[in-house]
Design goal:
It contains one helix and 17 strands. Helices cover about 0% and strands about 40% of the residues. The chain has a 17-stranded mixed sheet that branches. It has a domain at about 105-245: Jelly Rolls. A hairpin with a 5-residue loop joins β5 and β6. With about 260 residues, it is an all-beta fold. It is globular.
């Protein structure tokens, strides 16, 4: 088995070529997310954002984290922007997080988010996740997932940005690519372009559809075991804002991240 590991600086572009299987240790934890996908038969709140209908998560002691989730911590404003919040509830006396996911499954294509907020200054316990995630009929937790995440995972020494691919089947490790983020403004664009043979990740300064002002970029393109290492099946798309291991922000302040738009090409 051969593993190629390259570090991310201001801009990283590389492909992974393997003679066997890929194995990398992830910076982020193996946080169980299997309870984030709820049965569509439940009376879940929905909202409309960027032309898609999304389920809204609600409940206590659920992963990732585990955390408590409040459906009122996510809303769309009059301009069509999505707000996601972490807040302390005086009623439950607990910190509560936010998550949504599409009511339909999405397949190959380019996924792009316009984000508003200083994601480079997030508290070390705060996690922003943009990812697809399998239903139980597709595969278990730890498979079939493509992540863009902003988190320190409780450790200030960690890099804030994380691109991660979880394999299509069990028996392979995830591949994760951490990168630094240092912003001078509040607008960023983040995307992954998913095909059956590769996944291209990009983070960019400003709101844009071109490839300029790149913060970080990487291409995951294994030449062997491709269909085992790259998810192949359409699945729901998730967005969440949560607390690592359920630990509150160290400054005890509420958190809000705003998404101007999501689009899939």
């Amino acid at each position: 088995m051969k593993t190629v590991i390259l570090s991310v600086t201001s801009c990283l572009v590389f492909a992974i070529i393997l003679s066997g299987c890929i194995k990398k240790e992830a910076i982020m934890p193996s946080t169980v997310k299997s309870d984030v996908v709820k049965s569509t038969t439940l009376a879940l709140k929905t909202l409309t954002f960027s032309g898609y209908t999304w389920f809204v998560k609600s409940g206590a002691g659920m992963g990732p984290g585990p955390n408590n989730w409040n459906e009122n911590n996510v809303f769309v404003d009059a301009l069509g922007k999505l707000h996601m919040q972490i807040k302390y509830s005086a009623t439950t006396k607990k910190w509560e997080c936010a998550e949504i996911w599409t009511t339909t499954s999405l397949g190959f294509g380019k996924y792009e988010w316009f984000v508003e907020g200083r994601i480079d200054l997030l508290d070390k316990n705060v996690v922003v996740g943009l990812f697809n995630y399998p239903t139980s009929s597709i595969g278990p937790d730890g498979t079939n997932e493509i992540d863009i995440e902003f988190a320190k995972w409780g450790n200030l020494k960690n890099k804030m940005g994380n691109f991660t691919v979880w394999p299509a089947v069990l028996g392979y490790s995830n591949a994760t690519f951490p990168y630094n983020i240092s912003l001078t403004g509040t607008y960023t664009t983040h995307r992954f372009n998913w095909s059956s043979t590769s996944i291209i990740f990009q983070s960019l300064n400003g709101w844009r559809t071109d490839d300029t002002n790149i913060i970080a970029s990487t291409t995951f393109a294994p030449v062997v075991s491709t269909t085992s290492l790259i998810p192949q099946i359409a699945e729901p798309l998730h967005m969440n804002l949560w607390l690592f291991k359920g630990n509150p922000p160290t400054n005890k302040a509420p958190v809000e991240v705003i998404f101007s738009k999501f689009q899939k090409y």
